[in-house]
Amino acid sequence: MEARTRGSMSSSIGGSEELEANLTLSDRLKVFKGSTFDPEAYVTSKCQHMNEKETKHLTSYLVELKKASAEEMRKSVYANYAAFIRTSKEISALEGQLLSMRNLLSAQAALVHGLADGVHISSLCTDDADDLTDQDLYNMDSKQLSKIETWVVEFFDRLEVLLAEKRVDESMAALEEGRRVAMEAQEQRTLSPSTLLSLNNEIKAKRQELADQLAEAIGQPSTRAGELRSAVLALKKLGDGSRAHTLLLKSYERRLQANIQSLRGSNTSYGVAFAATLSQLVFSTIAQAASDSLAVVGEDPSYSSELVTWAVKQAESFALLLKRHTLASSAAAGSLRVTAECIQLCASHCSSLESRGLALSPVLLKHFRPGVEQALTGNLKRIEQSSAALAASDDWSLAYTPTGSRASSNEALQLDGIALDGVLQVFNAYVDLLINALPGSAENEENPVHRIVRIAETESQQTALLVNALLLADELIPRSALRILPQGGTNQSTPRRGASSDRQNRPEQREWKKKLQRSVDRLRDSFCRQHALELIFTEEGEVRLSSEIYILMDETTEEPEWFPSPIFQELFAKLTRIATIVSDMFVGRERFATILLMRLTETVILWISDDQSFWEEMETGDKPLGPLGLQQFYLDMEFVMIFASQGRYLSRNLHQVIKNIIARAIEAVSATGLDPYTTLPEEEWFAEVAQIAIKMLTGKGNFGGHGERDVTSPSVSSAKSYTSN
């Protein structure tokens, strides 16, 4: 019995022999294709006498059958996918046509009903006019209604054809004609209210259908520029100007994005050429959209606002794209030239839109500025490193190189302030190197290992440092700065006379030049401080210019040789040498040379004025200043005033400081109880002795029969003999 059951089950569902026979799916499904197939009866009959093993076998068989069925369905769908899509489109089109036909039939039915109602009402009306019979009135009304009915039917048929053939101009003319007829019918009451309502509703529906056709045409990428403008203008004439303008801008945006994708696909590098092409593409598209917007909607503020918003969006997208593909890499590498060229091209294209009322430069600058600043910083850092390398190999011998102005395009990036500050920073770093080249600079003393520049040993080399910095700050750097300053509206091809002067005289430019000058002043002050310290201190660090020079003079019994002290003789000799050097180097800049000598002299005298130990010993020390020491101190100060006056570098400040310290020395002597004026000679004596010293130190002294004398050791008799002449 069990064997029969298994055999029956195997033969019914296709046991192991059938599974191994690789039957086709069609053969396997024959049992299920019959019209009398009953699923429940089939399962009951096959599974009623099955044991557990047979049930599992049947289950696995059905699962396998399900998988095979799903795979067959998938293959069938893929094999007929194109036909399926085509059929779906045809069905959709057919549904649209059926819907249009239904609307047309509904409209015609409503029209017929309306006409019937009108005929019925007219037949029931009578007229008391004396000159027309009832029959004449009926005939006339019937004739009028017949003409309107005929026109309406022809109108709808003709409009349906025009819309189906997408003849826009004729469709618009037909709609306008229908509107006019409907208005006349309403005024003359030649149509019943229901018929007139149906006519107006149908005109409105067809107008909307035409508007949708136009909107679809505007959105098609294949629509040419002329057709696009015509469609937008037609849509506006239909009373949907806002929609027309929005669709116009969206159409240009889609075309722009497609062109950008094509451009990116055809470019393997994103350098200046890519930036130029992309910029031209974006801003020419914006310009064309602005032209079409003006032609379609005019200068309506609401539409203008939408255009500006759209243009700003496109400019921002362009800026982000260019920044990501071109500017970011060049800025990170510090390539200011590439960055500047790209932005200048963009700014040039962007400026062409300003005549159309679209000022998009601020949008670009907002996104480009950080990259330009990064590139500028990197570039300035390299310049600073190059300057340090050049300074390290400089022998500080002055060589004049002819320079000439060179025209250059102006960066309209509103970054002149940042660029000028960067140049100032580089110049300050260069001045620090020049200060480090001075023999007595603090940097050399504290960090001798980090010294990268050669020491300027001679006074000529040290003066050359000043000339170098002055020439840069006073001429070369300001001249180069004109290339990055805004032109202020001047035409580069025909520059206005004095245009560069106007730019240099702007308040911010004047302040920037003052900062350059202050850096030069810092180098000059270091120069003066170094030379003053060489005079005041010995190489071992001991003070040479001390109060003992004058205090000890009153302890000797011999009359002194009245001549300036050795340290002031050295000061005079140093100033004379430097004056000779600067007269050769500072050609055309005599004022700076004069200030240099003035500051050097002031540095020495101010040290005396401010040295508290110097005055404490003279005023309150164990051995206060005496008459002879006062006279020598007076002579030294007068000597400084005389040679500074003759050299034309005696400043008012220096003159006043010398007068003040002479008066302080006189008060110190007066504090001891002595009357200094009883021992001091007249002022003319000091001036004459100072003049003798100057002539003797310069080798110009002439003392009659005494012959040539040792100018370094003059005697008081020489002074007396000279003053008596």
Automatic annotation (TrEMBL):
* Tree of life domain: Eukaryota
Keyword flag Transport: yes
Alphabetic keyword roster:
Exocytosis, Transport
Q: Write the protein's name.
A: Exocyst component Exo84 C-terminal domain-containing protein
Every copy of the Exocyst component Exo84 C-terminal domain together lies at 151-360
Basic and acidic residues bias spans: 499-511
User: To which protein family does this belong?
Assistant: Belongs to the EXO84 family.
